[in-house]
Amino acid sequence: MDMSLGAVHPCIGRVAAMGVDAATMHRVLSRLDGLLSWDEWRDEAGASDMAPEGILQSDAVLLGAELSNPVSVAQRVCCIDKGIPVLILARPERVAQLEREIIFSPSLGSDVRPWPMADLDRLPDALRVAVERRQQRSSYQHTIQSAQLHLGKLTLFQPEVTHYLDRLLDRLPVGVLTVDASGAVLSMNRRAEAIFGSAEREVLGMPLRSFFVSADHGRLTDCLQIDRRAEPRAPRIFEVAARRGESGYVEATAAPLAYHAGQRGAMLILQDVTERVRAERERTRAEQDLRAHVKVLNAFHQISSAQNLGFEDKARHLLEFGCRHLGLPFGLLTRIEGDVLHIVDAVSPGEAIHPGATMDLALTYCDQTHRLQHPLSIEFAGIGPGDLRVHIAGQRIESYLGARVLVGANVFGTIAFAGNAPRAAPFSSSDRETMKLMAQWIGGQLERKRNEAQMRILSSALEQAADSVAITDREGVIQYVNRAYERLTGYHKDEAVGRKMSILRSGAHGAAFYDELWRGIKRGDIFRGILINRRKDGSTYHEDKTITSLRGRTGDITHFVSTGHDVSERHKAEEAARLHQAEMAHVARLSTLGEMTSGLAHELTQPLCAITTYAQTCLRIANSSAADLGQIRYGLDQVVRQAELGGAIFMRLRKFGRKGETVMRPTAMQEVIREAVSLIGADLKQAQISLHVDDGQWLPKVRVDPIQIEQVILNLVRNSIDSMSAVQPPARQLFIRTARASDGEVKVSIVDHGHGCPAELVDRLFEPFFTTKPTGLGIGLGISRTIIEAHGGRLWLEANAPHGTTFSFTLPLC
Amino acid sequence: MLGTAMMRQTPGKPRPSTEPTVYIVDDNSAVRDAIRWLVEQVKLPTRTFESATEFLAAYHPAIAGCLVLDMRMPGMSGLDLQEKLLEIGATLPIIIVTGHGDIPVTVRAMKAGAFEFLQKPFSDQVLLDSIAAAMRKHAVLLERRRRDSESGAALSTLTSREREVLRLLRGGNSSKLIAAALDISTRTVEGHRANIMAKLGVKTLPQLVNKLLPPDPAQ
Q: Is the ipTM of this complex over 0.90?
């Protein structure tokens, strides 16, 4: 305020002052800063002399506190101009009295009031407002007077001027319209035409009220009943009836109008306030909606959060609440299965619809509802485009509001409310939101119920599982164990929870083993393996263990799940099977040795024969007259060498025939082949077979029991020898091929040029005690396969042709 | 080792030598060497072969002596070699040595005309005796062969009339009878007879008869 007054402004009006003391005057003037010009009347006498023009030129009058009778001065001023604002300065204790005097002075205008001296700071502002008020008032009066002139006189006698005024009016930004005493339209300017959407010539003579909605007719008539002397009335707002397109709102100020003929009419100043009113109404409506929505939400919350109610009861309450809130008689919660709509729960007049009833889905609105993301609303089905006429409990449905219920991502069914009467107003957005909320809540509850049921099943499955289950946190502290765990370990749930998994360590695995295990699972790897663990009572057992990690929402590992079962029995059985297999292999080896006796005897005979001959020759030389010591030494050297050779053969035989545990060690495949060949060499020779062994290629070592693999090779070679008995000696070729198989294995193939294996026997080759030979137990191939498989490899008949057979086996690398 | 030993071939055709030699065929190098060493002690020349095929490659009909042959060998066995030699008309006596002599093999070897059959390990004296006997036998055989081939060569120079006269002479006919049989004069027969004696290099009738008779097995 200070700032606006502090600035230099053009003079906007005049104030007449009388009896104002110099100090006050100075104070007020300094604050007005030239905004108002100032006429000073010296005293009461001056006032009595004041010309009517002087009064009329002033826009406001300020009377000083020192005047002996300010009210009488004010009366004189008002006689000249009733509309001029008069402010009377008064000492505070006089203000109340002065007010009473003003009220009881009949000839004073409406704009006379006292002003306390104590409030001089606000006086300049009050003066300015008074001046503006006065000026506005006089400008209205001036407009109305000139309009009266124009309508009353000039129309008839001075057409040019009338036209000129019409043009002037047409340019006004406000609508101006005149009516006669009966309320018929006499004229309207261009703006008014725009407001009503009608041309002046079309509406002349028409009753003004026809432009407005009927509800406003009474107020309009009242507005037009104005007295010329009456105070100008506050503008009123009326609703314009829709003529083209939308309805609108105008703010109308009526002024009386008189004609020469004495006819009385009125002039209306109109302003289009459609936008303002609309915005206001919109705001009001939104506010009401919001309020209603909050109410609904409250009710909804009360139902859904009721502590003592189950889901079914809450759903029922919700249906009842929905019916009440929407004013619809039917409320349904349904489940959709294929083409059938199952009523889960229903509210209906007279309980006409029973829960458990079914309907043909295609004959209901729910058929559409369950496909829609948003609620489906029908206010008046009878005028709808569809030919679907839905009946429920024998009544035709006219209004409907329904939403689909999702459980997870799947449609469960719908929740819907319906009535047999059309609806007066459309369902509000609040209704639709509420509907959505109900559907969501029900879906959420159903999902929770389903999850709970699943969790119950899962946890009871976990609890009843035959496998032991333990869940630990990241550090291995046990958080849960099931009954199988208790049975297996002997630790009760209460004893195990809170302790570390390491309570089961038996000491059979080293610290490095556990370090590796933890490193792996903390990386997220799955651990699988046999652990030797210790029970609470100190006994140990073998557990086939799987440890997996659980990740939280952030992807970090939060828990480990360890499942396992006791495989001690299986382990024992496997141990026994391994022993049995070793025994079988031993028996087979002995049998093989027995069958190889003749060949082996020959193999031993050779060094023996050489020894004998050398030794005899030595004797012969020694006995001769000229004994050559050098010669004798040569002979004895040879004897020693041959004896060693024979000894080596014996060693080999003993080794091969030895009964023993399976001893796995890294072994070069060529070494095994060499040993085997040295045992079978004599037989090969006897059978006149040329043997070709791959020995060029370097192969990585395999982890095997060399004796058992030797046995396998021996078996295969002996089979080949037998199969080549029928072919001519030059064709008797035997190959032992070694190669590195692609996936970390070594492959050995025994290839012969024999007669092959008869097709009808191929399938039976590996059966124990199956043999095509007159001698032998027939356990060779069977035991060979068992041996190779126990080593983690495979043995198979790779090729079988009339001119040769290939048996191959693989062994994993170290 | 076995394979490479078998695959190793060290042929090299020996110069055909008529010097009686002990040929030793055995795939086992120790046995081969031991026999060689033993035989060398009695100052007999030896040649060793590690396989039957190697020996066959070196074989020449003119060689003399005997063959000490191992029965069980890869590729061509001792028996196979024996049969092969028989087939090509070799006369070399064969002493077979074997690690274990099963009866069918032994019978087969003896039927095929093996000179001796020894089982390993054998006595040195037995082997040396067998070798000596075999070599002696082969020497006689070769001597007779030589003579046969010489008379055969002389006979081929006779004319057809002379051959006729010789045939009748072998039948024990006198010159007169021959003359009568051939319808020629006795003098002519005598002439032919003188020619035959000259061509076959004999001076007397008993010498002629002796030359034409087959060798005496008693010798």
A: no
